[in-house]
Amino acid sequence: MRISDIDLQCEDIMWFATDCKGNIFECTSAGCGNVPEYVCRSREETDALIEYFMEKAPIITTSRLLIPSKNNNLVNDAKNLASKGLYCFDITDYDNDDKYNCIAIPDKALNISELPDDIQKMLSDHIYNGNVSEEHSITVDHAY
Predict the structure, then answer these.
(1) Are 126 and 18 in contact (CB under 8 A)?
(2) How high is the pLDDT of residue 59?
(3) Which end of the chain is least crowded, N or C, by CB within 10 Å?
């Protein structure tokens, strides 16, 4: 099933992609951020990636939080994902200029080549042309 433009306005979508170096990153849309076509085309694929990275992927490194530490789901999820080697980005619903800001980074990045084959296949066209290890914020094209 497709993620619709209405879904994007109502839901805080967590989505995953790779950069030009094969680094894996996660973005959280806050119901207002741009979400790429490759994410919107399949809710099942998006959910499978969430399940893998949130529940099955192993912890491989330590994480560094780049925002004030709070005990909330967003911060806890970002620390958890960064400890699995992912860069984590979030968008705010005010004055964001359509940019996702980096909120947590891994001390050792996970590369797409280190993932199970089925996860690599799902991410094979989830590509951001920049290098998330060098960027504080990113902008992506919107599916709608």
Answers:
(1) yes
(2) 98
(3) N
